[in-house]
Specification:
With 517 residues, the protein is of the alpha/beta class. Helix content is 33%, strand content 18%. 57% of the residues are buried. The structure holds flavin-adenine dinucleotide and succinic acid (SIN).
Length: 517
């Protein structure tokens, strides 16, 4: 049973089905609703072996991760991402090609080479559409849309499926081999985010409730350039724009990124996001400007970034002719459910893949476009592992401790949580704000266990928010995406380790050994 229809869930469903497994793929919206479908820049993979290598990709990943990456995960992704991109290409994903017919690769921040395969500025949509078409055709896949996983089923410590709310009615799905969480990220716990509405971190609380371990929760990536216009959503303006020459300026046209880092606009995301943040504080302004005009002629800019052009045009901005007002927004969660090189979690038969998982690949900061690569690589590895599993006979299992109530987690609570997190656990954090936020989130009034999908999301948001705030408070240093004004330096002597949570509380663990069962 797979929960979630993003890149990770879809590729896994296809692979397991082709191994002859019967797959139930449940997703809480329609099959096309996911962060994957919104991905713009592309998939990172060392595909041009004259200019690039898996080792260079591995090295860039570790540098971005600021000392907390799991090197085994980084090595696996660097080595296997090229095969996964070629596989997608064979399946029909319309990647942009050079005149010679090879993959056209672009550069994004903190990559030492151009290594991002893309389909204009809508790579995620191209991947999702291709995978969905194949998944829907496969006779071994049963797709359940509008089916929200509310609780995992566990028998004798082994995960055996989930209770879903399917079109409003409870439905128990028994899994005879694996149950897989591929539920994506939790950007919606922040008031300003590039993520779609479904990104409420459900997988984290589902996994925690059955005893799985979570790690690296304090590390949230803030994308530097999301549209910043009154009344408009914080729509992403791809980093590929800066990779291809776009510049960031203040409202008077001055480039300010070089004040903080010699790599300017192509410094790692956390550095650029903070440079913008400082600029906003200094000038008490609401946005800076992303100028795409240095990329080329107006037509060329509009052609290379057609979806961004169209979306900006809706707000009266012609990206070929005028700069875009932007500011940072929550974008990606590096933390998640601890999983090993095969996607296994600490609960037998429960797997976690994609953004909801924490393989350790990203450490304290994700290298751009490594997320889709991670989804594809680990989905493929998990399929191999699951393919080799024995399926025991079905037994009836209980949903211990599940006492549903129809109390509603009111929408205004969700907004208040998101405001709290944006203020206290956003681009810059400090002890006093995090203490206040963590205490208010711990004492938040919570109705009983959720019976409505919205309530499950409310509970999930609250759990993720509380654990992120508490982890950020514990980590008294600055590293990667986690910046503490009161501890502005990296402190390897105390913090070259991870904060790991389970249902009993947190512990500190060295990087190696995290994924032991
Ligand atoms: P998702 O694609 O988020 O899918 C999660 C699925 O789980 C959804 O279908 C959701 O409905 C479902 N779900 C969640 N909870 C439940 C539940 N309780 N029950 C049932 N179903 C549930 N990364 C890159 O590498 N390159 C990029 O260019 C890039 N661009 C991005 C642009 C944007 C605007 C955003 C938001 C992210 C971008 N990322 C990019 C990050 C990347 O898109 C995501 O990390 C990745 O797609 C996550 O894939 P996933 O399969 O783990 O989850
Ligand atoms: C982007 O296109 O800037 C997003 C890429 C990513 O999140 O990896």
């Amino acid at each position: 049973m797979i929960v979630g229809s993003g890149a990770a869930g879809l590729l896994l469903a296809l692979r397991c089905a082709s191994h002859g497994r019967s797959v139930v793929l449940a997703t809480k919206g329609t099959v096309g609703e996911s962060n994957t479908a919104w991905a713009q820049g592309g998939v990172a993979a060392a595909l041009d072996l004259e200019e690039d290598s898996a080792f260079a990709h591995f090295t860039d990943t570790l540098a971005a991760g600021a000392g907390l990456c799991d090197e085994r995960a980084a090595a696996v992704v660097a080595a296997e991402a090229p095969e996964r991109v070629e596989e997608l290409r064979r399946m029909g994903v319309p990647f942009d090609l050079t005149v010679g017919g090879g993959l056209e690769l672009t550069r994004e921040a903190a990559h030492s080479r151009a290594r991002v395969a893309h389909s204009a500025d809508a790579t995620g949509h191209a991947i999702a559409t291709t995978l969905i078409a194949r998944t829907l055709r496969h006779p071994h896949v049963t797709l359940l849309e509008r089916a929200t996983a509310m609780q995992l089923r566990v028998d004798g410590g082994v995960c055996r499926g989930a209770l879903l709310l399917s079109d409003g009615a409870p439905l128990i799905v028994s899994a005879r081999s694996a149950t897989v969480l591929a539920t994506g990220g939790c950007g919606r716990i922040f008031a300003r985010t590039t993520n779609p509405p479904a990104a409420t971190g459900d997988g984290l609380s589902l996994a925690l409730r059955v005893g799985a371990r979570l790690a690296d929760l304090e590390f949230v990536q803030f994308h530097p350039t999301a549209l910043a216009l009154e009344g408009a959503p914080a729509m992403l303006v791809s980093e590929a724009a800066r990779g291809e020459g776009a510049i960031l300026t203040d409202l008077c046209g001055r480039r300010f990124c070089f004040d903080e880092d010699p790599r300017g606009e192509l410094a790692p995301r956390d550095v650029v996001a903070r440079a913008i943040w400082h600029e906003l504080q200094k000038r008490s302004s609401h946005h800076v400007l992303l100028d795409m005009r240095p990329i080329g002629s107006p037509d060329m800019v509009r052609m290379r970034f057609p979806n961004i052009a169209e979306a900006c045009a809706r707000y009266g901005i012609d990206i070929g002719d005028a700069p875009i007002p932007v500011s940072p927004a929550a974008h990606y969660h590096m933390g998640g459910i601890v999983s090993d090189l095969w996607g296994r979690t600490s609960v037998p038969s429960l797997y976690a893949l994609g953004e909801c998982a924490c393989t350790g690949l990203h450490g304290a900061n994700r290298l751009a476009s490594n997320s889709l690569a991670e989804c594809l690589v680990f989905a493929s590895r998990a399929a191999e592992d699951i393919g080799a599993m024995q399926s025991p006979p079905e037994k009836s299992t209980s949903l211990a401790g599940y006492h549903p109530s129809d109390a509603i987690f009111a929408p205004e609570h969700r907004h208040a949580i998101a405001d709290t997190m944006w203020q206290a656990a956003g681009v810059e954090r400090d002890g006093p704000s995090l203490t206040t936020a963590a205490s208010s989130l711990s004492n938040w009034p919570t109705p009983g266990a959720p019976l409505a999908s919205e309530s499950l999301e409310g509970h999930a948001l609250l759990t993720a928010a509380r654990l992120i705030a508490e982890s950020a408070l514990l980590r008294e240093e600055s590293r990667g995406s986690h910046f503490r004004r009161d501890f502005p330096k990296r402190d390897d002597s105390r913090w070259q380790q991870r904060i790991v949570w389970d249902s009993k509380g947190h512990s500190l663990q060295p990087i190696a050994g995290l994924r032991e069962r």
